[in-house]
Design a protein that fits this description.
Blueprint lengths: L1 E5 L14 H12 L6 E3 L2 E8 L2 E8 L7 H11 L6 E7 L7 E5 L7 H9 L5 E6 L9 H5 L5 H24 L1 H8 L9 H6 L23 H8 L1
Parallel strand pairs: 1-4, 1-5, 5-7
Antiparallel strand pairs: 2-3, 3-4, 6-7
Helix pairs in contact: 1-5, 2-3, 5-6
């Protein structure tokens, strides 16, 4: 079983804010797979279902961002889910808006939701990081994450949420390493003719971000996912 937790704040006041990116992704995952994350359990709204025949619990903690760890940890223990099968989806200031990255483990980086999760769950949980960019100069970071997405961001947001939901599906169906290698790849810059014939490696060659030491052992199988969903 997998536990997929989206971070955010409850209530209409926060539903369209940058800090609620995790909630938006969980809603999309649940929609795709016919789950309704409306049952209250252990301080979270949660639903149970399957992603391509893999049992999954999706959850949105209702205790506000800074106390997300309590409900997430309680659900992990209740369902007996190992930490490395907990997927946490959260907004990320240190990534440009629209960038999606998968990461295994690591520190909280000042993110209060992740900090609280570290107190409840082994830090080996998997993350889907949703880039929201840094605030402009002079803008307080707390005010920025609690503000609504800009008009331009809202126009692009559905595509970003789709990519994040794709990332969750890839993790569950193909494993974390495969998902990282498939989705964290940076675009490859075409080599100039001189570079192609020099025998030197391209310094900007495509590399999986934050996956040092991981072997590429496959890629997500969209056909299999779509067949299971239908």
């Amino acid at each position: 079983m997998w536990l997929v937790v989206g971070l955010g704040n409850p209530g209409a006041k926060y539903q369209d804010t940058r800090h609620n990116a995790g909630f938006l992704v969980v809603d999309e995952v649940a929609r795709r797979w016919g789950m309704s994350a409306g049952k209250s359990q252990l301080g979270a709204l949660r639903a149970r279902g399957d992603i391509a025949r893999n049992p999954v619990v999706v959850a949105k903690p209702q205790t506000y961002m800074n106390r997300s760890g309590g409900p997430a940890g309680a659900l992990q223990r209740f369902y007996g889910v190992a930490a490395d099968r907990v997927v946490v989806i959260h907004d990320e200031l240190d990534l440009p808006f629209g960038t999606v990255r998968i990461k295994r483990g690591g520190g909280h980086g000042g993110h209060n939701g992740l900090r609280d999760l570290h107190d409840e769950i082994d830090a080996d949980f998997v993350r889907v990081r949703v880039g929201i960019s840094r605030p402009p100069p002079g803008c307080d970071a707390a005010a920025y994450v609690l503000a609504d997405f800009s008009k331009g961001e809202r126009e692009a947001l559905p595509r970003v949420i789709d990519r994040c939901a794709d990332a969750v599906e890839a993790i569950v169906t193909d494993g974390v390493t495969n998902a990282m290698n498939a989705l964290n790849v940076r675009p490859r810059r075409p080599k100039a003719k001189a570079e192609q014939t020099s025998g030197l490696d391209d310094p900007d060659a495509s590399v999986p971000a934050e996956t040092a030491g991981d072997a590429t052992d496959g890629a997500p199988n969209p056909a299999a996912i779509e067949a299971a969903r239908s």
